[in-house]
Each structure stands twice: as C-alpha cells, then as structure tokens.
Amino acid sequence: MATQQARRPISRMWPPAARWSEHLCMFIVRDTRGCALAAHEQLNRFPANPYCCITWMLEGEVELIEHGNDARSQLLPRHYVHGCQSRPCVSRNLGERHSFCAAFHPDAFHALFGVDLATIQDALVDASRVLPDHALRLVQAVAEAGDHDERCRLVEAFLATHATALGTTPWMRLRRMGVNVGLRVASRLLGVGPRQVQRRAQREGGMSVPTLSRLWRSERSLRQARESLARGETIDWAAHAVEAGYADQSHLVRDCKEISGRTPTRIAQDARHDEADWFYRL
C-alpha cells in the first residue's frame, strides 16, 4: 500500500483591494498543518521591515528566538501586534502552525488605532495590551471567521468604516517619492522643523526618517529581486543595486546584511530551498 506523503507548507500573500493599497500592504497566510516538518524547517526568518502587523495564530504556537544579534525566548501571544522592526528576527514554530497576518503601513496603523508607534518599535506584543476596543472587536471577528477570504473582507470592511481617519498623509507622499528621503524633504512635507519631524516620525511612521528611507528602499529591492527570480533571470547585482537606489553593489550588500543578516546572493540561494525563508519567496 502506498504511503501518503506529507503535504508541503502553504505560504500565501494577497494584496488588498486597490483602494486600500496605500494603507494596507498585504495579507499573509502560513499553514504547516500536516507537513511533518523537520526541526530546521520550523524556523521563520524575517528581515527588518517598515510595517505594523496584526498576526492571528489560528492554530499552534510560535516562539521568538532571535532579534538582531540577541538570543530571545519569547512565546508569542495568540493575537499579537508587530511594530516596525529595525533588525531581522527569527521565530520557531512549536509544532504545526496556521496563521493569518494583516500588514499595515505604519501611518495608517497609527491613524486607525491611535497607537504611538514609538512604544511598539522592535516589539511583538499582545494585541489586547496595545489596541483600543474597536480594534479588538476586529481582532475577535477575524479570529472567528470561517476562512481567509472572510478574514480579508473583515479587515477591508474595517478600513471602509474608518476611512475618514485615513486620507492622504505626508508619509504616503514620502513613500511614493522613492529613495533617499532626508530630513529636509520630510520637514517640508510635514510642515514642521527637523526636530519635530523626528518626533512625529517615531510616533506616526514607526521609526526615524533615515531608517524608514532605508527600509523602503530595501523593500523595493526585495520586490524587484523576487520578480526577476520568478522570471528565471540571473540577477546582475551591480545593475540591481543602481536600479534599486543604492550607490553601488557594495552599498547594497552592506545594507542587506544589516537588514537581513545575509548577503543578497546568499538570500537568493537560501530562499530557493530553505523552508525557513518562506517569507522571502512571497
């Protein structure tokens, strides 16, 4: 009798409806149920990133084990908020995992939920500790939803209900501008002095302006690399660096190592085969 093979993990990303794309970056699902993963395949590697996320652990548990160069042992809550991250991190599934995540642009997260983003930078915290009542009602509704399509609809319906809190923000304009956004440009768009810019950036944008600019650039670089690899192309890293807004290839490599802990070439190699790098394949 044939032995039934364990299925492969599911890693999916959905973009939001176009009308919400300036506020909500993506939905992410990770499902390892029935996959019989080896210990090293239970890891999840993430780069530093400029998003504020709500993650629902629908089944299973996850432990944060590395944050930058620091070893950690933090069992993550069933529903947790992920602030903007200036360092890469690694978590470990404690058995099978089924999760759903909504990744917001930080200014939209601040506008919707009133959270001072400086208080959650580089943190992963229980949603009940930081979110207001109207947000916790959303958290509960998404947790009780029957499938991922319904979960996406609930989050987008929440955005529609609270659309007056969103609108066009200076942070959206800064993201659209592309690379190397400095304090002078941010000061002009926000209409305040450089010192006030830094305070507002931490509270509303999640990080300092230079750090946000670096992470926006790294996100564009990662997206371009994914698209090239998906087309079966070999990446010319020197040309890619210039196209992505870096001074040269050495600048790209240094920045990538700080943000992900590895070189671009190593990430491209690992992501093809290493289950722990599922996020880089989305």
UniProtKB/TrEMBL annotation:
Tell me the SMART domains matching this sequence: HTH_ARAC
Task: Return the PROSITE patterns for the record.
Answer: HTH_ARAC_FAMILY_2
Pfam families according to UniProt? HTH_18
Residue ranges of domain HTH araC/xylS-type in the record:
183-270
Q: What stretches pass through the bilayer?
A: none
Question: Annotated Gene Ontology MF terms?
Answer: DNA-binding transcription factor activity; sequence-specific DNA binding
Q: Which InterPro entries match?
A: HTH_AraC
**Name this polypeptide is given:** Helix-turn-helix domain-containing protein
